[in-house]
Design brief:
CATH superfamily of the largest domain: Response regulator
Largest sheet: 5 strands, parallel
Number of strands: 5
Radius of gyration: 18 Å
Oligomer: single chain
Distance between the termini: 31 Å
Strand content: 5-15%
Helix content: 40-55%
Number of domains: 2
Order of helices and strands: EHEHEHEHEHHHH
Strand order of the largest sheet: 2-1-3-4-5
Shape: elongated
Structural class: alpha/beta
Number of helices: 8
CATH architecture of the largest domain: 3-Layer(aba) Sandwich
């Protein structure tokens, strides 16, 4: 990726995906998903973009539902999300921001504005991740149950959620829930921070 930030664009409009790729690929590594389901599957398998552009109006799983699913993936919960949509009503914008998105950009968008906002949110996200690394991690491993410890060790080896579930004969939802508890107990926010914890 040549050190470029990675942007994931989620939209069911193939013309918009093509346009977004053309606008962004010069500065960023761009990945595309044609649906919320496809995006969720990508992130559940360990794909971790630096920022996500997410359309709201999509069939089967709209942007709000997709956003909620993404927030339930431990490794994706702190990735900044920008809603990208043709909806211009204030209620839609307010709902998007209240859900935890960092921004809301209406379509059709102006290239310069999109790039400027992306740069701002990427820099803010980078600084937040640096703060998480610098902040001392409370290595409260003794607070983990035996099952949580097993899950944490497999997660530290970068096994995916489905792989961990299969290895331990658990459901994927159980693993996801356990990961949230593990992060809370260890006072960390993402899987890379597990590398600083002696398990």
């Amino acid at each position: 990726m040549n050190g470029k930030y990675t942007v994931l664009v989620i939209d069911d409009d193939t013309a918009l995906l093509k346009m977004a790729h053309e606008l962004l690929s010069e500065q960023y590594a761009v990945s595309l998903a044609k649906s919320g389901r496809e995006a969720v599957s990508l992130l559940e398998k360990g794909f971790a973009p630096d920022i996500i552009l997410l359309d709201i109006v999509m069939p089967f799983m709209n942007g709000y539902e997709t956003f909620e699913r993404l927030r339930n993936i431990p490794e994706a919960c702190d990735i900044p999300v920008v809603f990208l949509t043709g909806l211009s009503e204030a209620e839609a914008e307010l709902r998007g921001l209240q859900s935890g998105a960092v921004d809301y950009i209406t379509k059709p968008f102006v290239k310069e504005i999109l790039l400027t906002r992306l740069a701002t949110h990427l820099e803010n996200g980078r600084e937040l991740r640096l703060l998480h690394r610098i902040r001392p991690v409370k290595k409260a491993v003794e607070a983990l149950t035996p099952w949580e410890l097993k899950i944490a060790r497999l997660a530290k080896e970068w096994l995916t959620v489905p792989e961990i579930a299969s290895r331990l004969s658990l459901t994927e939802n159980t693993v996801k829930s356990a990961m949230k508890v593990i992060y809370h107990k260890l006072d960390i926010h993402s899987r890379p921070e597990l590398s600083g914890v002696d398990l």
